[in-house]
Design goal:
The chain is about 30% helix and about 25% strand. By secondary structure, the protein is an alpha+beta fold. The chain has a single domain, classed as Aminopeptidase, CATH 3.40.630. A 5-stranded mixed sheet has the order 1-2-3-4-5. A hairpin with a 2-residue loop joins strand 3 and strand 4. Helix 1 packs across helix 2. The longest helix is centred in the first third of the chain and has 15 residues. It is globular and about 45 Å long. The two termini are about 30 Å apart.
Length: about 160
């Protein structure tokens, strides 16, 4: 499957909506990398095939879309998944939520910002009223600054654990 080794990419990097059928392997690899990096992998199926099936099920939902950053030869450099759903505390409003986000080691420094900007644009295009972004404990400090520049502010810290 995926590798977290540093890679070489061919600039420039552009962002496009993923074609789930054509980009399947890149999306699964990126989702798995996100799950590993975020610490969520322990809450997902341990078997790679079951993990892939779970991601595929989620990708099949109308509310979900994935944007990929690709280099000049079409190599996936990173990606971001979003869901636009009714806001749980006010179903009259649509909430756009970041589901997963990854950039491969060696990706150009601008890749993260390009993905976040493109995701935000899609959130607006899809009629969302609320934006929800996530920052992992190990995320670069600049990530929070980007979200805040887009009008978001920290409202809670989530803790996850088994019962």
């Amino acid at each position: 499957m995926r590798t977290a080794e540093r890679r070489s990419f061919s600039p420039p990097v552009t962002v496009r909506k993923a074609d789930i059928a054509l980009d399947h392997a890149a999306i699964i690899d990126g989702a798995m990398a996100f799950a590993d990096e975020s610490g969520l992998r322990g809450y997902m199926p341990a078997d790679d095939a079951e993990f892939a099936a779970t991601v595929e099920r989620v990708l099949g939902l109308d509310a979900v879309e994935v944007l990929l950053a690709v280099d000049s030869v079409g190599e996936c450099v990173g990606g971001i998944g979003i869901a636009v759903i009714p806001y749980i505390w006010n179903p009259g409003l649509l909430s756009a939520e970041e589901m997963f986000f990854w950039c491969w080691p060696g990706a150009p420094i601008s890749t993260s910002l390009k993905l976040i900007r493109a995701a935000r644009a899609r959130m607006i295009e899809r009629g969302a009223h609320i934006q929800a972004w996530a920052s992992l404990p190990g995320s670069p400090s600049g990530v929070a600054a980007i979200y805040e520049r887009f009008g978001a502010s920290p409202v809670q810290t989530c803790y996850l654990g088994r019962l």
